[in-house]
Write a structure and sequence with these properties.
317 residues, mainly beta, Neuraminidase
């Protein structure tokens, strides 16, 4: 459903952004009720969005959203929902912040050899980038043809593999030169992409994770992701970390960790309030983008049109 945007001009001391996190354990629903605002500190303007209700998990899979996400202001922190049945819950500590291109509609993020590789989205704006971690400077860029909406990406051996949203077409590039080596097709929408060392792991916005051969790029299997038997939908950007896949849940400030053997969610990471204290003078969209530095055990996250990228440490709840 399209979201109406209303514009108000008010004094800065009257700015208010609030979020209520409702937990209904008996019904098996966790809903985010988000009153969303753009805040522009430079001119004191507020841009308000109507409420959105998002299921973290549901009794039946949620249909894949068909509209392009519009910009929203990150809501203020709320209490983390508590799960039972051995689901670990984490909050976070910010270790460091780094500059991030606020024009980058981040759809995929990978850290390798001291560099970020980033895939961005939106029609006529999608790209593949090599980005310096300390400065956020784009060192190398390949712009996708205008008819493609770029999505998740991963690095497998000496190649970069990138998805697109609705085209059912993916691209394979030379990692060093960004030269396009080939295209491939898949039967669903493309959202997130990572690999576990021998399989590509792909999401399509539903509760299903797909496995592709890194050699033939053909579908070789799939699993359904669930919490206590209930499907977890809107799986978005993916990152393989310490034997599990971490997934952004679209339109929330939550990341889940997933056991790839059985689809069980093993952990929930609540990243509410990451942008609190960050000066924002342009629209921002949802949390999206997970990267892991295996050598130094560093976890990075960012969002679409976010001006900063965070290194965080997970704190058990």
């Amino acid at each position: 459903m399209p979201r109406q945007i209303l514009h108000f001009s008010v004094q800065r001391q009257h700015l208010l952004s609030q979020q209520h996190l409702l937990t209904n354990i008996f019904g098996g629903f966790i809903k985010l009720c988000l009153a969303k605002f753009y805040i522009f500190p430079s001119n004191g303007n507020i841009y308000y969005h109507s409420n959105i209700y998002t299921n973290i998990y549901t009794n039946a899979p949620t249909s894949t959203p068909t509209h392009i996400p519009t910009a929203t202001q990150t809501p203020t922190p709320t209490q983390t929902p508590v799960f039972t049945n051995n689901i670990s819950v984490y909050t976070y500590t910010i270790i460091a912040t780094y500059p991030h291109d606020h024009d980058a509609f981040t759809q995929g993020l990978v850290f390798e050899d001291g560099i970020f590789y980033e895939g961005t989205g939106l029609y006529e704006q999608s790209s593949l980038r090599k980005v310096a971690i300390e400065t956020g400077q784009v060192q190398q860029i390949y712009e996708l043809p205008k008819q493609f909406f770029g999505e998740g990406l991963t690095i497998y051996e000496d190649k970069i593999i990138q998805l697109t949203w609705k085209s059912q077409i993916g691209f394979v590039y030379n990692k060093d030169t960004f030269a396009l080596l080939r295209q491939f097709r898949y039967p669903t929408e493309g959202w997130g992409l990572t690999h576990d060392g021998h399989r590509l792991v792909m999401s399509d916005g539903t509760a299903t994770i797909y496995f592709l051969s890194p050699d033939t790029l053909e579908l070789i299997g799939q699993i359904n992701v669930h919490i206590n038997g209930k499907p977890v939908t809107r799986l978005n950007e993916l990152e393989y970390i310490k034997g599990e896949v971490y997934a952004n849940i679209w339109q929330t400030e939550q990341i889940v960790s997933i056991n790839l053997e059985n689809g069980n969610v093993t952990g929930l990471i609540n990243l509410t309030g990451l942008l609190r204290g960050v000066e924002i003078n342009h629209p921002v969209d949802v949390l999206n983008g997970i990267a892991y530095d295996e050598e130094h055990d560093r976890l990075f996250v960012t969002g679409k049109w976010w001006p900063v990228l965070f290194e965080i440490e997970l704190v058990p709840r």
